[in-house]
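Journal club side-thread
Mid-discussion, someone asked how the predicted structure for our own chain would compare to the paper's figures. Pasting it here so we can look after the session.
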Amino acid sequence: MPQQKRNLFLYGAGLIGVVVSLIVVVFLQPDPNVELENTPGKELVPSNSLGVPLETSSQTGLQTAALTIDDAVQRQVLETPKTLANYFSPNLEGTDIDGRVRLGPDGNIVLDLAVKDFIDYFLSASDDVTPEVAINEMLNVVEASLGPAGKAQMMELLDSYLAYREQAMELMAQPMLPSDQQTREYQIQMMESTLDEMRQLRRANMTDEAVEAFFGLEEAYEDYSLRAMKVQMDDTLSQEQKAKMVAYHRSQLPPIIRRTEERMVEDQKRHRERYEAISTAKDEQELAQKLSEQDISVEQKREILDDYRYQQEFDARYKVYAQERRRQLASVSTEEQKDAITDSLLEKHFSNEADQTQARLRDLRG
């Protein structure tokens, strides 16, 4: 009997991300228009137009900038571009680069989700080009923006991350029980154990800082999802108790995820209320009355009423179509004849492809 491969249902897709650090030395040419600041009790100190102190060589008399690496970084923002100069993949043609890689004040790359998005953007081209080509293009962009040191460190860090990815793929390929033998308890147990192994692999190959930057939010949402699923499966709890416990776990999410999850919950609640209003309304007047009791805008109310009228009209056309279809199908025996009759009636009763598709779906439901 065929066996399934593991499926993590992870929040956010993609196994590839990268953490990069680099140091850039910036050489500034001294400004020929040097101003001298003469303050009583202080030695005359030449400076250029940027206010950077200049030192005078006793041997040559040439002035050179006494600029540290941190000074250079603070004065120049180094980061990867927003678009590619040359698109190496049709999938990326005309798109902006997702994410970015930029330097922090210490001369190292800032570790955040933008770096992971940057990596995922290039690897998304793997349908058109080999992974090696995508990675080389990515490294070329990094080198052009952040210098050879950036490229060297990117390559070193990519090695460790791709090692994690390879091990993670092996883990995902391990078999599970056939779907007809799986219980909810088994699915949660497998999900929990697999996520735990994935986290161990991340930390075995990557630094804690890198794991937190790339997977911190994802892991927090995984924990929330598992807790919420366990609450829903607890038959000792009432629906009210379950709702309160899930709401508590949601409140523990990081703010950026919590706000998104709360909006999703509110949207789902509104959709349920509107669906209930539409499905239980006897006519358009009753639906309008129910909608007036909900907190929706005039524009939203108009859209729902338009959808209701459209669906009522579709239902009436489908009823006529279905009756005629049943009558004609009763007189033929082959599948080819039945398909031809159905196609002809669909074109007769429904003028657009969307309505024809909806009618076919209803046919399948019987």
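Post-session note: Confidence is low (pLDDT under 50) at residues 1-75.
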